[in-house]
Design goal:
GMP Synthetase, Chain A, domain 3; Luciferase, domain 3; six-stranded mixed beta sheet; alpha/beta; 16 helices; binds adenosine monophosphate
Amino acid sequence: MLGLMAERPLLISSILTHAARFHGDTEIVSRSVEGPIHRYTYRDAERRARRLAKALIRLGVAPGDRVATLAWSTHRHFELYYAIAGIGAVCHTINPRLFDDQIVYIVNHAADRLLFVDTTFLPLVARLAPRLPSDCRIVPLGPCEAPPAIGLPVLPVYEALLAAEDEDFAWPEFDERTAAALCYTSGTTGHPKGALYSHRSTVLHAYAISLPDAIAISARDVVCPVVPLFHVCGWGVPFAAPMNGAKLVLPGPRLDGESLYQLFEAEEVTYALGVPTIWLGFEAYLDASGARCSSLRRLLSGGSAVPPSMVAAFARRGIELRQGWGMTEMSPLGTAAALKRKHAALGADALLAIQAKQGRPVFGVEMKIVDDEGRTLPDDGKSMGELLVRGPWIISAYFADEAASAAAIEPDGWFHTGDMATIDGDGYMQITDRRKDVIKSGGEWISSIDLENAAVAHQDVAEAAVIAVPDPRWGERPLLIVTARDGRQPERAALIEHLATQFPKWMLPDDVVVVDELPHTATGKVMKTRLRELYGRR
Ligand code: AMP
């Protein structure tokens, strides 16, 4: 017998109409690309999204069409999310930090024909124009004095498109499985691959991340996704914030410690989300300036491993830094490292050891680790295998890429994350390495993440990466590469001595290299492939 409950479709537009009606005077504040702060409400945003929806239809955008953005995190990008998806088209957010070849590939692969571009990125579009489809039209997002000469048709600027429309528009209803957003993930090899989110997956993900042990944004919060809106839909915050009625603060292009601090203080931000590199920079600013955060209480850090020393540094300031783990293919949230009631009595070090794990799955995410033969390994916190995941906001295939889909997704839906991990008896998953980054020395695994976390706890070290270097006797040996904290000079002997207090001798790096800067990928991860090219053949 089937239940008798209404099957209302889970649509993205309903999140914004809900916010406009029930949190109508709650603000969205953006630091604009032009500089000044822009301030309006969910009610205003929904009205403008309706105008934009009409403008898109007038420009010929049809359901299923991909409409691309090359844009910072501002109110205009927020409106594009809702208006594009709201008419049944697909919002394709392009990460402007990708290499030229990757951007050219994804615009062509996605068949984008309309591109909304912040003025900052117009030179990038001009450079790539000869390799983009010649009928790809450009809408500048900010004010432009004269249409720039970029070799592609340029339409009136965004505000002019909106000004030409009225608000007389009703959001259409359609199948909740309709595609809503597209985001490419740039592996280090091969072409970028597209994750195509649906309305249903996006709404379910927004519910899930709002759970108390995940991101828990409420109508009393002021939330700032420092993670850009071009990275996995701003980790779902542009959906979860209006769903829960939280004030939303969008930081625009300036993400350095001082700019963030000023914005957080001025707007009374209580919750912010970003990659560890952002929080390293933010903490270094607080440290150097002696500044105190008066409203900030919680941070979510994901995208790369969070060193326990960083959790401890923020805890000393009364700020809880929670680690999250996820992937573009997972919308992105998979796990969060919230503590359990039974941990209340633990000492500081034991708590840190739990918080340093990537965390427990939010309900909806299935998770297992398997050995090379595909056999499931026990949740004992020791057995290490590849992490496989499955769930309603995890991809079932890559967009128009059969080969990549077949390589990553099992017929029964399990997705190979490419991460090596353990899962303990309490459900906490810990990533030891990307599969291709693990170090195998004398037949034993060495976790580069464990070594990196320990290295950044040293007072002289700002950032650390460990890579495998081929070794005739042991197969591979670890090499530690670090950058210095301001005014400090890391030394090999001191660092090895520091690590030797926590690791057996055979796990210690054979050498330490100090560099000015580590190379990062477009999503802020240390680019180990580049480090292996530079230092991997010693
Ligand atoms: P992306 O699709 O760009 O978000 O990258 C996803 C990958 O980032 C994952 O497969 C992990 O390798 C890595 N990652 C994300 N969050 C974490 C975390 N908290 N700790 C370690 N690695 C992470």
